[in-house]
Amino acid sequence: AQTVTQSQPEMSVQEAETVTLSCTYDTSESNYYLFWYKQPPSRQMILVIRQEAYKQQNATENRFSVNFQKAAKSFSLKISDSQLGDTAMYFCAFMKHAGTYKYIFGTGTRLKVLA
Amino acid sequence: DVKVTQSSRYLVKRTGEKVFLECVQDMDHENMFWYRQDPGLGLRLIYFSYDVKMKEKGDIPEGYSVSREKKERFSLILESASTNQTSMYLCASSSTGQHVNEQFFGPGTRLTVL
Fold first, then answer.
1. Above 90 in pLDDT, residue A36?
2. How far is B107 from chain A (nearest CA, A)?
3. Touching check for A45 and chain B: CB below 8 Å?
4. What residue ranges in chain B does DSSP mark as E strands?
5. Under a CB-based contact definition with an 8 Å cutoff, are residues A4 and A93 in contact?
6. CB pairs under 8 A between A and B
7. Helix or strand or coil: residue A57?
8. What value, to the nearest 5°, has the Cα angle with vertex B21 and ends A104 and B98?
9. Who has the most CB within 10 Å: A56, A115, B24, B88?
10. CA within 13 Å, CB half, B20
């Protein structure tokens, strides 16, 4: 069975600094999707970034980028130039490529951006 | 924009009551999901539906049932609420189409069972 581990329950970062959130996963699948979702306080969860396992290139979305290490089964999220609006819970999620649309979520990292 | 709405943001019920949580999406998505979110445990899948009248158990289905009579609506039912079902409940939907795999979430229902 697949598992997703986020080992940092809480983190903080100064505004304008860079922070990296860790995620590791365990799977025997060769092709799959990985996601980072953001849940701001009292607001809806939204997709930040996604990575397809067969793509070598790391995904980027503006200030958000990932470091995808397939062999190490690691999928970290880097937030550059942190902003106060980045304060949120961040969840890493795994989905098998074929046969299911279900996710397996990690336990989340609570990120606080300090002014 | 995809919109997923949930019938209540906050709900307080008594032990033993039957509880209905409703979720509606407006983007004609095939897949709908119910999760439970608890601190330190992340999101855990309760039930999943990939079509009208179709359902599949998730990781923690005990004590819950679901209903999907129309494509846009997915209901979560607590047959006899218990205090250990106090939690945040999130609904999500996704398409099997072009933007495959992204899940769109509702605002959540915080349920307290007394």
1. yes
2. 5
3. yes
4. 4-6, 10-13, 19-25, 31-38, 42-51, 54-57, 64-70, 73-78, 87-94, 104-105, 109-113
5. yes
6. 46
7. coil
8. 45
9. B24
10. 7
Positive or negative torsion for Cα B52, B56, B60, B63: positive
Which member of B4, B42, B105 has the closest CB to residue A107? B42
State what percent of residues in chain B have pLDDT above 90. Answer: 89
Over residues A65-109, the pLDDT tens digits come to 999 999 999 999 999 999 999 999 999 999 987 667 789 999 999
Residues shown for chain B: 114
| A110 Cβ contact partners less than 8 Å away, ≥ 6 residues apart | A9, A10, A11, A88, A89, A90
Q: Could A33 and B101 be called an inter-chain contact, meaning their C-beta atoms sit closer than 8 Å? A: yes
Q: What is the dihedral of CA B8, B12, B15, B18, to 10 degrees?
A: -30
- A101–B96 CB contact, under 8 Å: yes
Compare all CA atoms of chain A with the CA of B34 and give the residue at the minimum distance. Answer: A102
Identify the CA nearest to A113 among candidates A40, A37, A7, A24: A40
Q: Which amino acid is at A112?
A: K
Q: Is-contact B99 B81, C-beta < 8 A?
A: no
Amino acid identity, position A78: K
